[in-house]
Design brief:
about 30% helix, Rossmann fold, 11 helices, 3 domains
Length: about 375
């Protein structure tokens, strides 16, 4: 027996209920009777106006990658778009989305975090004014059908064999990373091709490339054509790092994201630094949208956070500080993503990142090497 949703074949995970067999491995998403016909009947996609408006003109390099993506999808080939943070990965797939929708195919975006789903859905509504763009995530599940669906990974169970094109944004991040059930649910939601978007693809994705199961296109530069910022690394004792952090914040002119490895530490340092009138945000915050909107409106200068803001969210003209950067939660990909928050605005591509740590770790060294490697691919030898 094999579960048609998550792919499980281990008999220990199946159980016989009063109405038939079920798979316990994915039953939390929705009870699915395995002895029933799994194929769902969907109405034919309507004819839609898929014209889009770009907020900026694609660079020569972006246009080249956009054309490559479209050509691969036209030839029914799944692919990885390996592009540095801030390269405009979303805009790179606009032409492909337009093509697929005009062919009356179903298109979906799957994203790791709820805040990013809401932000991207709003952005796509503006950029594709003729489409019904539907966000599907926690608190947004009353209407789950539209011309273009933007959902969290966990909501893909609703769309078995539905998408002709599924765009997986940052599949190397939680909750996709290492989650075989979610990966299989994602695969089973798509009957066509998948585009993986990532700046830090993990071994699972690169293994698909190496084995020839998917193609790869690379974009190692941003629209600003400026090198990626390399972090300044500060080592010292804990007490000295606190003093240095105070001094850095006193001198700051830009808005700044200050990252802490745990919620406990985040709460402690928010109280300690209350004189700076900081705000904090974590997975436990009830008013995430309000806090992020306030930061975007520049209502306060410092936002203390956890890795909840590691990726996906764009703030123009900011600096970043990673406190206790030696912590195990800060893998090389997490650190690269955090540094990717810097310099994303074409009009203000400056900014800096600071790693404050008790010791240098392999992850910190790898982060610096990855950023340096991307800069050399794009520009040759770079002094940063």
């Amino acid at each position: 027996m094999k579960c048609p949703r998550c792919g499980n074949e281990d008999p220990n995970w199946f159980y016989l209920g009063s109405k038939g067999w079920y798979c316990r491995k994915c039953v939390k998403f929705r009870a699915l009777q395995l002895n029933n016909d799994f194929e769902e009947s969907y109405p034919e996609p309507p004819v839609v106006d898929a014209e889009y408006v770009l907020r900026f003109k694609l660079t020569v390099y972006q246009k080249e990658i956009s054309d490559q993506i479209l050509n691969l999808i036209k030839h029914h080939t799944s692919l990885l778009v390996n592009a540095v943070c801030g390269a405009g990965k979303t805009e790179l797939v606009y032409a492909t989305i337009k093509y697929c929708l005009e062919q009356r195919k179903r298109v979906g975006f799957a994203i790791s975090r709820r805040q990013v789903v809401l932000q991207l859905a709003q952005r796509l509504k503006v950029d594709f004014p003729g489409l019904k763009v539907i966000p599907v995530c926690q608190d947004y599940t009353k209407d789950v059908w539209g011309d273009l669906i933007v959902c969290t990974a966990h909501q893909l169970y609703r769309y078995q064999h539905y998408f002709d094109l599924l765009i997986l944004d940052e599949p190397d991040a939680f909750p996709f990373k290492g989650n075989e059930v979610l990966r299989n649910i994602a695969n089973n939601s798509c009957k066509g091709n998948i585009i993986y978007l990532s700046a830090t693809p993990d071994e699972w994705i690169m293994d698909l490339v190496i084995k020839g199961k998917i193609s790869e296109v690379d974009l190692p530069r941003r629209p600003s054509n400026k090198p990626l910022a390399l972090p300044q690394v500060i080592y010292s004792f804990s007490s000295i790092l606190i003093i240095k952090l105070i001094l850095i914040l006193k001198k700051q002119r830009r808005q700044t994201l200050v990252y802490f490895p745990t919620i406990k530490m985040l709460n402690q340092y928010t109280r300690l630094f209350k004189r700076f009138k900081v705000r904090r945000i974590s997975s436990k915050s009830n008013d995430k949208e309000e806090i992020l909107a306030g930061f975007l409106r520049k209502e306060f200068q410092f936002l203390f956070c956890t890795t909840i803001l590691e990726r996906g969210i764009t703030f123009p003209g900011i600096d970043v500080i990673v406190f206790m950067a030696q912590h195990q939660v800060y893998t090389s990909s997490v650190l690269v993503q955090i540094m990717g928050r810097v310099g994303r605005d074409v009009k203000d591509s400056g900014g800096k990142g600071v790693f404050m740590c008790l010791k240098k770790t392999t992850a910190i060294e790898q982060c610096c090497q990855l950023i340096d490697h991307a800069n050399k691919l794009a520009y040759g030898v770079v002094e940063n």
